[in-house]
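Severity: low
Component: inverse-folding endpoint
Summary: output formatting inconsistent between runs
Steps to reproduce: submit the following structure tokens with default settings.
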């Protein structure tokens, strides 16, 4: 079953890359045009805007998810009461469909239904908070929803890493008078490289393929202010019926993931080589 799944996955990627070099429209074709689709792609302002958006969304959401996830993991690692309850609460957003997450945050940020309306009903009639209707702030609303959805699973991964740290390390740090924050930053975090790398890769994958959240919250708007590459690809194939250019865009989306995996593999190989030399 694993071989079948991997085979289908690899074959699918192979055909996607193959069709990116063709002039396929509504249906795939095999009339090769070289790099023409990639040239058209990088001349398309809509694609350029979607790339800028994904960089902003990705950097903000990944950085915040990693930071918040680690802080939550440290909090949970204190052997608090009702730990199972808190873990369920933090993980609940991740268990929800991205469509549901998007709708919840769309309602929360809607000026007629959400926070703005609630506070005005309490008497603050001049209060204004409607980020999703403004092209300059809509991305920030998406980032907030992405953090709410992704920080819980990052917490779970990092909590597993923290629980794997030998308790003698904490005792030695306390005996040496090392502050807790320095222990986490300079001793514990380096020992959790594998855990941090796993969380980082998962966050990168979720950012690159983000689609449901965008459609549910903004539909790519206002205008094209929140269009992301995944939205661009789907619309290019289904609405504009340009399979060739859509596959070129999909191939470009795959490259960052391959780079991250390659860099991670390189670091693991170098670490293994050092251990063998020792």
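Observed output (run 2 of 3):
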């Amino acid at each position: 079953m694993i071989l079948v799944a991997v085979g289908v996955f690899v074959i699918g990627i192979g055909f996607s890359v193959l069709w990116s070099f063709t002039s396929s429209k509504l249906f795939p074709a095999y009339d090769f045009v070289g790099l023409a689709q990639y040239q058209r792609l990088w001349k398309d302002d809509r694609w350029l805007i979607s790339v800028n958006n994904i960089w902003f969304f990705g950097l903000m959401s990944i950085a915040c998810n990693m930071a918040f996830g680690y802080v939550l993991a440290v909090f949970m690692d204190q052997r608090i009461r009702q730990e199972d309850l808190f873990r369920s609460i933090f993980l609940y957003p991740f268990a929800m469909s991205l469509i549901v997450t998007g709708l919840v945050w769309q309602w929360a940020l809607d000026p007629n239904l959400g926070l703005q309306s609630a506070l005005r009903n309490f008497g603050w009639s001049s209060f204004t908070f409607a980020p999703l209707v403004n092209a300059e702030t809509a991305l920030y609303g998406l980032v907030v929803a992405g953090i709410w959805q992704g920080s819980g699973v990052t917490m779970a991964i990092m909590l597993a890493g923290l629980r794997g740290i030998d308790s003698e390390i904490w005792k030695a740090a306390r005996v040496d008078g090392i502050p807790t924050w320095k222990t986490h930053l300079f001793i514990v975090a380096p020992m959790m490289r594998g855990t941090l790398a796993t969380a980082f890769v998962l966050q990168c994958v979720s950012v690159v393929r983000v689609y449901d959240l965008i459609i549910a919250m903004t539909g790519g708007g206002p205008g094209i202010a929140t269009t992301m590459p995944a939205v661009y690809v789907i619309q290019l194939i289904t609405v504009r019926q340009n399979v060739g250019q859509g596959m070129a865009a999909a191939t470009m989306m795959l490259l960052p993931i391959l780079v991250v995996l390659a860099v991670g593999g390189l670091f693991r190989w170098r670490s293994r080589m050092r251990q063998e030399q020792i």
